[in-house]
């Protein structure tokens, strides 16, 4: 499907930025469906003109005038099954498709050691189920977004586990993937361990090898892939079950104060004296609160002792010594003070 990707129309917080994110679709005003995006993140170069316009700059011999927002369209491919999203599966040319903000933050590739091409020249990828969509997006990502830089890798192996040969997705694109770099795709219907062991052409150093697990949230499949990595002494692992930390966006439009005419409050850093004064105030409040708690506890203890003494004087029995008072060794207040 063709979707709007102009940065002038779609804010960065709602855009498709990393492989592993999910497209939120609604067909004919129906139920929202989250479908894994199989298209690589849209390259930044297609937004050069909208971004230049958002800056507010002018070209040579251009005068200030109201211009219509620039529209940029791009193709989006999602992976769906008939059981999970029947209305998306049966999508037709006359259906109305609404695309909401992309869900999730995607693979934490930037925070992974696999991003370093010389530290991990060899990469093995374990794929099952919906993870093939993320695998396709990752392999086909352009150079201006987070990607694997396939041309600079020594070896990249994809072990794709499927129930049967009829369940292989994107099979017609395997040759194109292998043409992107030193990539080889293997399909198996048994297990990741068998596929890894049967690959006699793979020679690797565990210290410079990384693994990527793309199983679409299947805990059993991820456990199986991690067992293979453990047997192969591969410790650098990136899984789609752990997404990257969310990005904090300072403002949806950094030029809002220019468009609205409202002055923007400058951010000022507090001086050392201000910080020390605030810390002293916090410490004083904590000390006052502790003192109040101690006074309340002392008052409660004094009230308890007075009640016990009044009770002893009133019954005239004491502990059998005839004077109507407890002996100091056995009085409740003395025992409490000893404890």
CATH topology of the domain at 113-239: Rossmann fold
Quote the distance from N terminus to C terminus.
77 Å
Level-1 CATH class name of the domain at 113-239: Alpha Beta
Structural class, by secondary structure, is alpha/beta
Strand line-up across the major sheet: 8-7-6-9-10
Tell me the fraction of residues in β-strands, as a range: 5-15%
CATH architecture of the domain at 113-239: 3-Layer(aba) Sandwich
Extended strand count: 10
Task: Please summarize the sheet with the most strands.
Answer: 5 strands, parallel
Order of helices and strands: EEEHEHEEHEHEHEHEHHH
Radius of gyration: 34 Å
Count of helix runs: 9
Q: Could you describe the 3D structure shown?
A:
With 339 residues, this protein is of the alpha/beta class. Among the domains are: 2-58 and 68-104, no CATH class; 113-239, Nucleotide-binding domain of ferredoxin-NADP reductase (FNR) module (Rossmann fold, 3-Layer(aba) Sandwich). 30% of the residues lie in helices and 15% in strands. The protein is built from 9 helices and 10 strands.
Based on the model shown, name its key terms.
extended; Rossmann fold; disordered C terminus; 15% strand; 5-stranded parallel beta sheet; 3-stranded antiparallel beta sheet; 339 residues
Brief digest:
With 339 residues, this protein is of the alpha/beta class. Among the domains are: 2-58 and 68-104, no CATH class; 113-239, Rossmann fold, CATH 3.40.50.80.
């Amino acid at each position: 499907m063709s979707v709007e990707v102009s940065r002038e129309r779609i804010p960065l917080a709602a855009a498709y930025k990393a492989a592993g994110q999910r497209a939120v679709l609604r067909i004919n005003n129906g139920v929202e469906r989250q479908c894994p995006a199989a298209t690589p993140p849209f390259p930044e170069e297609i937004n050069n003109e909208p971004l230049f316009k958002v800056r507010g700059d002018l070209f040579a011999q251009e005068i200030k005038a109201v211009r219509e927002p620039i529209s940029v369209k791009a193709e989006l491919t999602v992976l769906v099954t008939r059981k999970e999203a029947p209305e998306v599966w049966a999508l037709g040319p006359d259906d109305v498709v609404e695309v909401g903000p992309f869900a999730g933050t995607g693979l934490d590739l930037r925070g992974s050691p696999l991003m370093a091409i010389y530290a991990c020249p060899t990469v093995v990828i374990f794929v099952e189920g919906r993870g093939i969509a993320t695998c396709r997006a990752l392999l086909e990502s352009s150079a201006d977004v987070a990607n694997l830089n396939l041309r600079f890798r020594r070896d990249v192996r994809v072990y794709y586990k499927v129930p049967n040969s009829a369940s292989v997705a994107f099979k017609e694109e395997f040759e194109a993937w292998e043409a992107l770099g030193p990539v080889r795709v293997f399909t198996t219907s048994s297990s990741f361990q068998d596929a890894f062991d049967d690959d006699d052409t793979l020679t690797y150093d565990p210290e410079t090898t990384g693994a990527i697990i793309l199983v679409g949230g299947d805990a059993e499949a991820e456990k199986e892939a991690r067992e293979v990595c453990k047997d192969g002494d591969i410790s650098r692992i990136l899984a789609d079950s752990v997404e990257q930390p969310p990005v904090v966006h300072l403002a949806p439009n950094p030029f809002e104060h220019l468009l609205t005419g409202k002055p923007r409050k400058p951010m000022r850093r507090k001086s050392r004296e201000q910080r020390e004064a605030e810390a002293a105030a916090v410490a004083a409040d904590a000390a006052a609160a502790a003192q109040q708690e101690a006074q309340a506890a002392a008052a409660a203890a004094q009230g308890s002792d007075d009640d016990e003494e009044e009770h002893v004087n009133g019954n005239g029995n004491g502990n059998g010594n005839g004077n109507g008072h407890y002996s100091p060794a056995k009085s409740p207040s003395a025992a409490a003070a000893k404890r």
